[in-house]
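Suppose a classmate hands you a notebook page containing two proteins, each written out with its sequence and a corresponding row of structure tokens. How would you begin to make sense of it? This section walks through that situation. The first entry is reproduced here exactly as it would appear on such a page.
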Amino acid sequence: MKKRRIKRRPIIISLISLNVIICLSLVMVYFINIGSVSKKSQEVTFVVNENETFLSLSDDLKESGLIKSEFFYKLYVKIHKPNNLQKGVYKLNKNQDVKSLINTLNNGTNYNDNITITFKEGKNMRDYIKIITSKTNITETEILTKLKDTSYLDSLITRYWFLNADIKNRNIYYSLEGYLYPDTYEFKKDSKIEDIFKTMLDNTEKKLSKYQTSLQNNKYTVHQLLTLSSIVELESVGNDRRGVAGVFYNRLNHKWSLGSDVTTYYGAKINMGDRDLYQNELNASNAYNTRNKNMAGKLPVGPICNPSVLSIEAVLNPTKSNYFYFVADKNKKIYYSKTLAEHNAIIQKLKSEQLWYEY
């Protein structure tokens, strides 16, 4: 009787299929384990010390929650052989996979210890001091001391064309008030106050360069023009700055007091909106309060905030008119008048229409 041959091909095929499945599974496990730890962004500061290698980092990366598996991380390193690791501080993220982490570490430190500070127009030095001290290690005492340092101020006067001895007037509250251009800046975390002032003054120089001729060839000094600009910044509530500037020039030319509440608040070292002023503060005789009769025909001793270019432009190009009064309603619309009677009538009308702005 003839023996039947046993067909083994299905078994061989089954073994091959099994090996393929195993290989595919291992590949899948590999890619899963070199994937990111999290889908959500979570930044981690990571330090690479001297003489460390990509392989020696595995434990620290795992402990920092940046990789899923030391084994598969090391396997990736052995396969791809990255070789440009540099010491330093890095900003890594848990949503980076191993490939991305290696690329970051292979390209050198990406750590940025800079801080961003935004200084808004119309804010005064007290506001700026609060921002600086909250964002840096600089103290209020350091700032105030530097602002009173005459040797330092002399060095600035020598360096910047728009600064002169007016900033050293003993009646000025803060010597650089009005000269620190409102903008968004980037500083080193360990910056000194001189560094911050220099960066801001450099920006002021850049912004004012366009107007240098107009500022220097004027019946008023640069200091006086910036002082008036700071008042226009706050009084115009962002609307018709040129019209408001024109009213103030009319009052100055006729030897009237400016009668500006914003100067009175600054003289009292109170921010508008914090509270109403007391009668003695309204009547106070100081170098800022333009409501006081002694300030007739005069500007305050210095700026009361840090104005924008828009207000500086308005002061250099005011609207000519016969108006001596203005008032703004709660919608920031400005009304002008020639006489006090007209001015008071507008105020009463605004109050009756519930448009009168109250702090």
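The notebook's second entry, a different protein, reads as follows.
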Amino acid sequence: MRRLWALLASTSLVVIGIGCGAEAYETRLTRTIEDIKYKKKVDDNLMPPLVKSRLEEVSVFLRPPRSLTETKTFQLAAIDTEQFDSADSFLDAKAGWTLHVLTRIRHPKTAVTAKKKGPVAHGDYTKFTPDVIGIVGGVYNATDVITTQKPKTDVRKGNEFKHWTIASEGKSVQVYLLQKDPYKTALIFEYPSDQQASVIEKINLCLDNLVVGPNAKSMYQGGGEGVEAGPDAGAQAPAAAF
């Protein structure tokens, strides 16, 4: 009798093991299919990584929406670009929408000697947010609006953005600020309000795939596949408050 019970118990374990293995395989297969679909969506909507660019030099991995073309100079406003580690603009004149990117890095303090100078400071790191708000508010005559508007928190694949929305003469302006110390990065999207349905997915994918710091450098060196695919992939620790 004991042998019979032992045989039944071992058989049950084998059946359970086969069932668990099949379930795990189906889960992996489903995830793989989701990954492939997501990567295709990213490639269909976003440009390839911007290799050999100023953004690569400062380790900001960005894939702008397709149809946008990088401009030679920062287009949002006449600013002192030396106050930022990077200041870049992307434009689709035909569709009438743009993306502007500003980055400021908190560089470590290094003693200056006769032979070796410390890193160049590009503006006050602690004043990045008010500087961006001042630029955006001045351009769109919305300083009061943006300073009194409580920013929303928008988490995209672990990137925690502070998000403001401004309406300006038939345009929608979306301001996203990301802090991942020692980086602060602002993405400013402007597009005709009636195009929001077609634009919003591109913006979300662009935010999903934004990476700064050492991980960005690794992604550029590795061919820039972007953030790991899947609805919950690529999660990173939440950012500190600005």
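A careful reader of the second entry would note: Residues 2-45 form the longest helix (44 residues).
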